[in-house]
Amino acid sequence: MSDKFDLIVIGAGPGGYVAAIRAAQLGLKTACVEKWVDDKGAAVLGGTCLNVGCIPSKALLETTHKFHEAQHGFAAQGIMADNVHMDTKQMVARKDQIVKNLTGGIAGLFKANGVTVLQGTGKLLANKQVEVTAQDGSSSVHAAENVILASGSVPVEIPPAPLTEGLIVDNEGALKIDETPKRLGIIGAGVIGLEMGSIWARCGSEVTVFEAMDDFLALADVDVAKEAKKLLTKQGLDIKLGARCTGTEIIDGKEVKVKYTDASGEQEMVFDKLIVAVGRRPQTQGLLAEDSGVKLDERGFIFVDESCRTDAPGVYAIGDSVRGPMLAHKASEEGIMAVDIIAGHKAAMNYDCIPNIIYTFPELAWVGKTEQELKAEGVKIKVGKFPFAASGRAMAANATDGFVKIIADEETDRILGVHMVGGIASELIAQGVIAMEFCSSVEDLQLMVFAHPTVSEAVHEAALAADNHAIHIANRKKR
């Protein structure tokens, strides 16, 4: 048994590493367990998000967006760039370098803050003891006053499409593709599927997306989903709704035949690559000893309360392994909340104000409730909507697709949801988050001064439009 820690965090993803740094800042003797290693056997920090998720995918999205704009958007702006082509291998190498820089940065932050890295697979035993099993099979047991479980999630695999090296891949394998496939199939029209589809469609792939559900982006606001499908289809994504994959077949080790059913019956298509992106599940298998005191639900999620406490005293769980959206920023804030509670501070988290973003172009972003949710709850609402096509700054940026939509309570004027489709919606949505966090009314946004010319003015105008007071679009006729 080694020296006792004040806190041991299992997992060094965006929830775990942030929690470990915060704990060390607050004076807690902290260790962080991580099982990922590089080719030299050293721990790789940052988890799925940094290594094979958020960061590398955004690097590819940024590069391919610039490439697509150079091909299709420069001429209208008077920029002549003939024979623009993509060096796919260089694009992937740049992505890898960004990941390397950031993982190294976390290692530096751990060192600067005095966080101990325990390399290996962590398992919670009884009485807040953590067993760490190294790559060579050796194990050690460490005691702690408190433990945070931040084990993250893994891609869901489906029997009809078993992963096959280089041909049928999950999101991690998709990020290793270094040649543009002529025909790319994607199972799942969620965040990962749409982002991967966008990347390779811009590079010239014929992209087909299979979605088993009849509704596109069912969790998004209906206006966002409708606009997104229209724009993505225009960009070349063939989105097949109500299309359920029933099987796959490898042809000559080079192609993948996908069998699926839709409203027309049984169908087949052949692809050079197939990405399976049907969601993720909590990575809790092997994480807990039977007598750890921590309970799981039938889907493998860890039971926690609103403060991320598990059923075992002194043990917390955060991020993708607990209820709520599987988002890096949600995991990070849960980690900070848990540590602050451990350190004796008052802490809480507002789960009603967590932003969601899909980094297609234009980007999709929202916070709060959708129009269909509020109507189903019987809430009387008013809606303000402003298109970027009426924004001078958006015109200058050659990014006029999309809109800002603000939904408010008709009686109290309180903002209940903000939804966007637009070029920098991922940045603009923070304005909606701040407004809702401070319980703003529509009138609050109406009375604020927004700089001109900016795309942010669309938020101001959408707030004005909720009361038919928009300046730069024609308002609805009053009944």
UniProtKB/TrEMBL annotation:
Disulphide bridges: 49-54
Broad class of where this protein is predominantly found: cytoplasm
Residues annotated as binding FAD: 58, 122, 320, 326-329
Any one GO molecular-function label of the UniProt entry: flavin adenine dinucleotide binding
Cellular compartments annotated: Cytoplasm
Gene3D superfamilies: 3.30.390.30, FAD/NAD(P)-binding domain (3.50.50.60)
Keywords in alphabetical order: Cytoplasm, Disulfide bond, FAD, Flavoprotein, NAD, Nucleotide-binding, Oxidoreductase, Redox-active center
Record text on cofactor binding: Binds 1 FAD per subunit.
Active site (UniProt): 452
Cofactor(s) needed by this chain: FAD
Binding sites annotated in the UniProt record for NAD(+): 188-195, 211, 279
Signal peptide: none
Family: Belongs to the class-I pyridine nucleotide-disulfide oxidoreductase family.
Note: The active site is a redox-active disulfide bond.
Name of the featured protein: Dihydrolipoyl dehydrogenase
Taxonomic source organism: Marinobacterium marinum
